[in-house]
Amino acid sequence: MLISDGSVVCAEALWDHVTMDDQELGFKAGEVIEVMDATNREWWWGRVADGEGWFPANFVRNQHQPLLPPCLPGGPQKPERNGSGMKLRVNQDEPEDYEALQAGDGGAEGGGAKAQSSRDQMRTNVINEILSTEQDYIKHLRDICEGYIRQCRKRADMFSEEQLHTIFGNIEDIYRCQKAFVKALEQKFNREQPHLSELGACFLEHQANFQIYSEYCNNHPNACVELSRLTKLSKYVYFFEACRLLQKMIDISLDGFLLTPVQKICKYPLQLAELLKYTHPQHRDFKDVEAALYAMKNVAQLINERKRRLENIDKIAQWQSSIEDWEGEDLLVRSSELIYSGELTRVTQPQARSQQRMFFLFDHQLIYCKKDLLRRDVLYYKGRVDMDGLEVVDLEDGKDRDLHMSIKNAFRLYGGTTGESHLLCARKTEQKQRWLKAFAKEREQVRLDQETGFSITELQRKQAMLNASKQQVARKPKAFSRPYYLTRQKHPALTASLPQQQVLVLAEPKRKPSTFWHSISRLAPFRKFCFSNNGEKGLLVIQEDCLTLNECEKP
Fold this sequence. Notes:
Elements: E1 8-13, E2 32-37, E3 43-48, E4 51-56, E5 60-65, H1 98-103, H2 111-153, H3 161-168, H4 171-188, H5 200-205, H6 213-230, H7 234-246, H8 254-258, H9 260-277, H10 286-322, E6 338-348, E7 353-362, E8 365-371, E9 379-386, E10 390-394, E11 398-400, E12 405-407, E13 410-415, E14 421-425, H11 429-452, H12 458-475, E15 485-490, E16 502-507, H13 516-523, E17 528-533, E18 536-543, E19 546-552
């Protein structure tokens, strides 16, 4: 109604929204979204900067701003957050005395008690929402596991276990963890005085279990692709519909049901932020809710980071496929993140030879390559250094005792147990410092991956390398034995009265017009050259990008 009457409806993002497909709108907390379609209660269509898409309505605060008159410049203006004359409301059910509640005004007699009563009521509402949505979510997961997965396993002729894992991911593990979580919530719920319920501790006890959502969120795009492929066949469409009807589930397609866990894990920080807002600092649950909010934000951030890392493995595979003369195992066997890259001088022993090389620091390993002398964008693989167990030693400028030569902006990679040693020099001191920071970051990345259990599966690695090889073949031009070569052919311009001449013409692939012949014409004192062939003479005229026999004449 607000959109149709000429008003601009804006919403302030309360939390980052992670996009899982092209139809969704991604945004950061605090951004203002212009709402363009709010007919659906759960998902709205909005715009941020140049992007448009669907986003969950419960991720934002609603705020309304009238459209500026046509005579005023600037059109719709970005609303000031919490500005005067503009009320922010979490949802449509929030009471009108929200600002008074937030201020906690107790100046008037009984005002403080009224504000506290309103705060308790709002805390009760948030707690009831957390419990009710959690119970609905458990039913939703049960319907997927029992209504779809169980039925699919009965049809081995239609589904393999690998297919089921691609479609449903680890949703059965999520179901088991969520059952334990909702049971803990119900035990902490105070039925007589709900606002005294202490739910923060439940989130803290189960925060490690929530990390399994990372695997599910990372697999979700693969599930959408596989479902899209299967639903092109009518037998799978009928089968999935029969599963839904037998389980008495609402009329939503399977891919819609599978999106719910992605939405759920991103909604927890929002719910905890609301709970903390209505929890008095003296409340027994305040510190636990505060810690739980921080923990669930970290879980959401971890899921974001893992999603980004898995998207990067395709880029790493493509980079490896572009390197000439690659040797040894694939990068993705051990690495999944490019930390830093740049050019360094590698000093080899015992002759103390200096070599300019391009170095690429990944987690666990350092790759170095040589540039092509003519095509500077082409790299040749020259070797790698295993970073696990190596120590990075900063060297002072001066004479090196081992090599008996002067060094500057140098550092050494030294293996204490193996005795392996690599001396590398940067051109500038600033470059050296950046490399030293990059090596420290690489070790920190490895440590975090070990703590969080992040790794790339064999299937993901193989798929990334397969995609890279396909793209490499698609980009590779047709092979020629030589860049330019000469072929003999009959010249079509010769008349029948003249002896058939054999001339040399330059044959080459199609390319952009060259300025080569312009340069020749400016430098050469003449443009006509005579040549003799079988006693006849002709004039060979140089033209741009081609050699043609222009005419034949007698001496």
